[in-house]
Here is the input.
Amino acid sequence: MKRILIVLLALLTLSQVEAKKKKTSGNPIFTGWYADPEGAVMGGRYWVFPTYSAPYEQQTFFDAFSSSDLITWTKHERVLEQKNIPWLKKALWAPAVIEANNKFYLFFGGNDVHEGEVGGIGVAVSDKPEGPYVDALGKPLINEIVNGAQPIDQFVFRDDDGQYYMYYGGWQHCNVCRLSPDLLSIIPWPDGQKFHEITPSRSYVEGPFMLKRNGKYYFMWSEGGWTGPNYCVAYAISDSPFGPFRRIGKILEQDPKVARGAGHHSVIQIPGKDEYYIIYHRRPLSENDGNSRETCIDRLIFNADGTIQPVKMTFEGVEARKLKKR
Ligand code: FUB
Here is the structure.
């Protein structure tokens, strides 16, 4: 009798352990208030670099998160921090990370810069995805306000010919510039200008993102105010990285059953596959504070005609997706 009881107990414990094993990522994918998540695949792992969502004076560092399967995320604390950016005072925002030249480049916005102040878009470099990253220039890469665009929310895009472009801009204006092969300076356009305005729509606000698929350029951006419920993501498709970008519609917005203020996203493509995941922030229904933003993941699905389906925000998140060994 005692033996049977022991076996039954063991079986019960085993099934409890099984039940506890995570089958999906859940949303948010990690705890804490984190916004503007930049997703990437680097060094054989998935990475997410978000903004630490807090009052500006407290935004003096970035944490990063990595995963082998999109389900379990490991926190890498303070991959970039104020002590490694001589000009940073506050408002360290919206990381954009890219692997190039056997290094890792982390672009960031700093100081919530206004006319006549020091701040804007900076670039930090590391030998490893997990940092530590160190400011490479000792000053912002873009300090000036051109075409009305606040220098924040940069995204670095590598086209198939190896050319790097940076899309950036808050305050309802978006610029594009060309980066040098070492990613540390801006190459002027043939007309001598460093920046060309490519604001896709009057509803553009911030958070530009570029994705190339089947030869088409998918340009995406955030609309609305980030502290409010209506923050959302819209997109356009073009044959050129410079547009014109004609707004097609929204792909991410609040859902009264799930969350509000969903926006400032990025997209992870499974290497070599036509399979995409959107990483974005949203505000739980129970929260009203502007900084209460959490990082989530869901599927991004293309229709047969190349348009994008509106994202279905979930609490479950996504299923395990292991990366192939390199
Ligand atoms: O998180 C700080 C700012 O909020 C970002 O730069 C904007 O895109 C908005 O998400």
Summary: The helical segments are 2-20.
